[in-house]
Each structure stands twice: as structure tokens, then as C-alpha cells.
């Protein structure tokens, strides 16, 4: 009870990060298309008087998109967030947030100048008190309303182009469930028509950066509502697992004794209600999920379709995936071959990297294996195992970044599916984040993974691998350059000696250094790599 009261007090005092800022969910903001709230510190829009930021026009990417979405002007998420707002706060330096009232990820302090790197840990390495605290934090988030954000319950057209706002309150945990739904929902085309081949968070290059931001925001929100600034999301390392190791009442909830599709009554999660799981119903009504309760969490791990997901991922699957050098390839969707992203997401075979949407590997395998709320994309974040799972997926992404050290240009700038180009803003986040901004090592964003911190040989190998790969690609050029350099050196040496002979001098100043044979044998030659 004390924890609940403390959390409620903190959430009323602290800003958060999420979807539609409450202060901008009104007629004036929607009609003016401006969301530039005042910063509480000085009362000026975006904290402009304190040089935190200023209200600016949104700069949208003009790069061409892929062919997967053949429409224009039919979906509120196109050119996010311009349908709702075309002016927002642009923050300076290390400031961030819809009013520039927060620090960027990885910074803290009054002026956001203090660097920090926090460590995400294996859930099985937590002490009993740490684990119980994590479970309590989850339950707290499910029971505290978000003070700074609301969700949209209608499209912009249904809002009469802004003159009839349709928003509602939501608790902190479900805010993130709704955002995951909103990013992956189908496009409503009117009547009973929908377009299903669209997803702003999956099946394309932005899958990994999008979920990285999602977890960072979720982590920060938990820190805020609990006052525990050192909190980090734990991860579940599911490599080579025989079954769902976290599916017991000590952790994320065991199996119900009489209904295998439900959670044990002994788990705090058995009382949770899910939202945004009835996509066909929303589509038939041409409506958005309104975040009303739709029943308990469903989970029946291991009783899934074995022809699609025969087992949980193995260490070998992960290592093969990490060996792939291309982040993205081909059509840059679920049909991409030899793509690290598509293989990790689970649409390509984890042993060949050839696309096979009929099978589910790596990330997708976990979702299918859970055989319940986790197995339906739009509502998958209802199950709290979601955050443990995606934290580990993010750690694999991090390992790939450290091993291959890609330049930002490796992330596609154009022709990716809608919303996934490098400079596109991620749906549905406000404040705004571009995909490319999170295509970089986690330590630059203020966090690390416990199992990646060990200074073992693997770390050196990960460091060395990209340079060896580059050397293999240009070895012929290097050999040619060496031969050419040798010829040039020989020619210059011959000319130099010829010039010396012309001079004919033999004074001690130009005599070669003489080395006795025994001294010569004592000289060692070292090569430096």
C-alpha cells in the first residue's frame, strides 16, 4: 500500500514519455496542429527561456518508401505525427521530452550533463528481494493512471479533423500495450475494408530500433513512478531452454490448475485484464482499440503448433544470426534473405537466413511458443513476459552492433516499408524519435547488459571481426598496393645509390654502419598488428 501511494505521488509530479501528451489532446492544439507545451521550470514553451528547446516545424523525410503500402493519405500514421501536429518541441543539447523537460537517455542531472550507464541483468541473477521488487513494480504500473499521456479512441477523421477530440485515460502499463497495438494495427480503409500489410514496428528495418526505444521509455516510466532511478529491465536468456523457465508463480505466473490456458491464481498476473486483442472486431467496426478490458492474460506455453515452432531457439541459432553481416537486404520486409534483422525477428530460418514466413524462429518463436496473449502481435505486450523477452532480443541486437560496428549509413535511408526509413519518425511516440537515432551501441543510450560486460576473449573477437571482414574484402587491393609500393621503393633506392656513387665520397660521415656477425644475430624483429 505504501508503494502504491508513493508511486501515485511521484507520477503526479514527474513527466513521462509515451503517446499523446495530455496537454496537447484538445481542440486548440489539434486545430492549430501545434504541440509545444510549457516547461514547468520556467513556464515557456519547450523551456525556450532556459535554452532547453523551441517550438519548430516538423521536418519530415522525403525519401521514397517501399511498395508494400500502395496508398497515400488514408492512415493517420503516415508521415507521423503530421496528421495531428506539424509543430513540436525541438530540444537542444541533452534535453528531451514533449516539453524538453527531461534528459536524453544516458544523461541525468539538473542540466542533463551527467553521463550514466546502467546494467540490465538476467532475471535469474536477481536476489529474491530484487525479483519481488520487479514484480511489484509491474503491478504498480498496471494500477496507476498515466498523468501526462492519453490514448486516441478515434481516428483524426472520426475526430472531425480535430474539432471533436476523442481521447481517454489509461494506466501506465496499458499505455505501452496500446502503443504497441497502435504501431502494428491494420489500416482502416472505410466500410469493411482494411489493409493488413502494414506495421510500423515489425517486419522491416525499424523492428529493432523501435523496440529499443519502447523498452527505454518503459524502463524510464518505471523509474519515475517508483522513484527507483536505478531500476533496469531484467532479461530472460531463453537460449537452449527446454521450457518456459519463467512460467511459475515465483516469477511470471504458473499454469492454472484446471484451465491450462490461464495463469495460476497464486500469481499477481492472474488478475490482470488484457486490452487491444480483438483486431477483427475493431476492423469490422472501423474503430480503434479503446483500451477496455477484454479478459485475463492467456498463456499455454509449449502447446503451440509444433510444425511452425518445433522448439525454443538455441545458442547455435543465435550465433549464426550474429554472423550475418548485412543488417537488411532485398525488399527489407519479412521476405528478406541473409538479413540479420529478418533472421533475428524470426521470419528467416536461423540456420540458413533464407526467408520462410511459414516457420517462426528466434524472436517470433518465443511469441508463438507462449500460445496465448503473447502470440498475437497487436496485443502481445499484455503479457509481462514481453519485456523480459524483448530485453534479451535487444541484447542480441547489441552484440551484433558491437561485433560488426556498422556505420549509420548501413541502416536503409530509402525504399524501406512505410515508417521504416532511417529518417522516419517512429509511430506513435511523442516526443519524436527517428529510426536511425537508435542504431547505435546501448552504452551511448545509457545502458548495458550484464553478460556483455565481461572482458573475455569473445569481446576481443567481436572487436576484431569487422576489421578482418573488411580486410578479406580488399585483400587483393592490399596485395597490389604492397607490390606497387615495393617496386617504387626499389626504384628510388637504386636512384639514391647511383647518386651516391657519382659523388664518390668515402668519409666516415657517409660510411655504412658496420655490424659484427655476433651482434647481428642478437637483433630481433617484431611485427606489430
From TrEMBL:
Family: Belongs to the tyrosinase family.
One of the GO biological process terms: melanin biosynthetic process
Gene Ontology cellular component annotations, sorted alphabetically: melanosome membrane
Pfam families found in the cross-reference section: Tyrosinase
EC top class named in words: oxidoreductase
E.C. number: 1.14.18.1
Cofactor(s) recorded in Swiss-Prot or TrEMBL: Cu(2+)
Claim: Transmembrane is one of the keywords in the record: yes
Signal peptide bounds: 1-18
Tyrosinase copper-binding domain ranges (all copies): 202-219, 383-394
PANTHER family named among the record's database cross-references: TYROSINASE, TYROSINASE FAMILY MEMBER
Membrane-topology descriptor: Single-pass type I membrane protein
UniProt-recorded name of the protein: Tyrosinase
Keyword Transmembrane found: yes
Keywords: Copper, Glycoprotein, Melanin biosynthesis, Membrane, Metal-binding, Monooxygenase, Oxidoreductase, Signal, Transmembrane, Transmembrane helix
GO molecular function: identical protein binding; metal ion binding; tyrosinase activity
Transmembrane region(s): 474-496
Chain intervals for the UniProt region annotation (Disordered): 287-313
Amino acid at each position: 500500500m505504501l508503494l502504491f501511494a508513493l508511486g501515485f505521488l511521484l507520477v503526479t509530479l514527474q513527466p513521462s514519455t509515451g503517446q499523446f501528451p495530455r496537454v496537447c489532446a484538445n481542440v486548440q492544439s489539434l486545430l492549430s496542429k501545434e504541440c509545444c507545451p510549457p516547461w514547468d521550470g520556467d513556464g515557456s514553451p519547450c523551456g525556450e527561456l532556459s535554452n532547453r528547446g523551441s517550438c519548430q516545424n516538423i521536418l519530415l523525410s522525403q525519401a521514397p518508401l517501399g511498395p508494400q503500402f500502395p496508398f497515400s493519405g488514408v492512415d493517420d500514421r503516415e508521415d507521423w505525427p503530421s496528421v495531428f501536429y506539424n509543430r513540436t518541441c525541438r530540444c537542444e543539447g541533452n534535453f528531451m521530452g514533449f516539453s524538453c523537460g527531461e534528459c536524453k537517455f544516458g544523461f541525468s542531472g539538473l542540466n542533463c550533463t551527467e553521463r550514466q550507464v546502467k546494467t540490465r541483468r538476467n532475471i535469474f541473477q536477481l536476489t529474491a528481494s530484487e525479483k519481488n521488487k520487479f514484480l511489484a513494480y509491474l503491478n504498480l504500473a498496471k494500477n496507476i493512471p498515466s498523468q501526462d499521456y492519453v490514448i486516441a479512441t478515434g481516428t483524426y477523421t472520426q475526430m472531425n479533423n480535430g474539432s471533436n477530440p476523442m481521447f481517454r485515460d489509461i494506466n501506465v502499463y496499458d499505455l505501452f500495450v496500446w502503443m504497441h497495438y497502435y504501431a502494428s494495427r491494420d489500416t482502416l480503409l472505410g466500410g469493411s475494408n482494411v489493409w493488413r500489410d502494414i506495421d510500423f514496428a515489425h517486419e522491416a528495418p525499424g523492428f529493432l530500433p523501435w523496440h529499443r526505444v519502447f523498452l527505454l521509455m518503459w524502463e524510464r516510466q518505471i523509474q519515475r513512478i517508483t522513484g527507483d532511478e536505478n531500476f533496469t529491465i531484467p532479461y530472460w536468456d531463453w537460449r537452449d531452454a527446454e521450457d518456459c523457465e519463467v512460467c511459475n508463480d515465483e516469477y511470471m505466473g504458473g499454469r492454472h490448475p484446471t484451465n491450462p490456458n490461464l495463469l495460476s491464481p497464486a500469481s499477481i498476473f492472474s488478475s490482470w485484464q488484457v486490452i487491444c486483442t480483438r483486431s477483427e472486431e475493431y476492423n469490422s467496426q472501423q474503430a480503434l482499440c479503446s483500451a477496455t478490458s477484454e479478459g485475463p492474460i492467456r498463456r499455454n506455453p509449449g502447446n503451440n503448433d509444433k510444425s511452425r515452432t518445433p522448439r525454443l531457439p538455441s545458442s547455435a541459432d543465435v550465433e549464426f544470426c550474429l554472423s550475418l553481416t548485412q543488417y537488411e537486404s532485398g525488399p527489407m520486409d519479412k521476405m528478406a534473405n541473409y538479413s540479420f534483422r529478418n533472421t533475428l525477428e524470426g521470419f528467416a530460418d536461423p540456420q540458413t537466413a533464407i526467408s520462410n514466413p511459414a516457420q517462426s524462429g528466434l524472436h517470433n518463436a518465443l511469441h508463438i511458443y507462449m500460445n496465448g496473449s503473447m502470440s498475437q502481435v497487436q496485443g502481445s505486450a499484455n503479457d509481462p513476459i514481453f519485456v523480459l523477452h524483448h530485453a534479451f532480443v535487444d541484447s542480441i541486437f547489441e552484440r551484433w552492433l558491437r561485433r560488426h560496428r556498422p556505420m549509420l549509413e548501413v541502416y536503409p535511408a530509402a525504399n524501406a516499408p512505410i515508417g521504416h526509413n532511417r529518417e522516419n519518425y517512429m509511430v506513435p511516440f511523442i516526443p519524436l524519435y527517428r529510426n536511425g537515432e537508435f542504431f547505435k551501441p546501448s552504452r551511448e543510450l545509457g545502458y548495458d547488459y550484464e553478460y556483455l560486460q565481461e572482458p573475455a576473449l569473445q569481446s576481443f573477437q567481436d572487436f576484431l571481426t569487422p576489421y578482418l571482414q573488411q580486410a578479406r574484402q580488399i585483400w587483393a587491393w592490399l596485395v597490389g598496393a604492397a607490390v606497387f609500393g615495393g617496386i617504387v621503393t626499389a626504384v628510388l633506392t637504386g636512384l639514391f645509390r647511383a647518386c651516391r656513387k657519382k659523388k664518390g665520397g668515402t668519409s666516415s660521415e657517409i660510411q655504412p654502419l658496420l655490424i659484427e656477425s655476433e651482434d647481428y644475430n642478437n637483433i630481433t624483429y617484431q611485427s606489430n598488428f
